Amino acid sequence: MFTGIVTDIGEIVSFKPVAQGQLHRLRIACSYDRTTIADGASIACNGVCLTVVASGVAEGKTWFDVDAAAETLALTTAKHWKLGTRLNLERALKIGDELGGHIVAGHADGIATIVSREDLPEMARFELSTTRELARFIATKGSITLDGVSLTVNTVKDVTFSVLIIPHTLDVTTIGGWKAGTEVNIEVDLMARYAARLTEMTV
Asked: Lyase: present as a keyword of the record (predicted)?
């Protein structure tokens, strides 16, 4: 589990197919302490929970390898990742850690597309669109995870919604580079999903 609070920005330094193209192995450079990364550890990469299969240090920089399966490549923005792509990173939640965002599974539900960006004094406003299936779980003032970042929904209208981003978040995540047309991974609030399921079962 995660909280949607990004703790580092990584960069893809290697991307190659393995297992007859059914998997792609990514090597991601980061600032984490190598000694704290164990094989089998979970790290959310742009909101996608991936499992570490190897790690090390090269040229003074920590790196870790993860495998992205065909389904991950098909359903998330991982399909667009390449050498040099920057990724929001978050380590798995430990018992006793501060829950600064909201409960995030790291299982992206799909993709949202940036419709517009408005740069305001001291912040930026983004309007996004997603599928009707996912839009039903999005509510004003509710939580949403976009590229691994826990955010509060500002407005909702049909299949579009907006978020306001403060300067700190723009500085410490990849959100500062978002523009119209950018695709991002979206994970809806788990509580909203469960509430909808319970409602369906009682109808």
From this structure: no
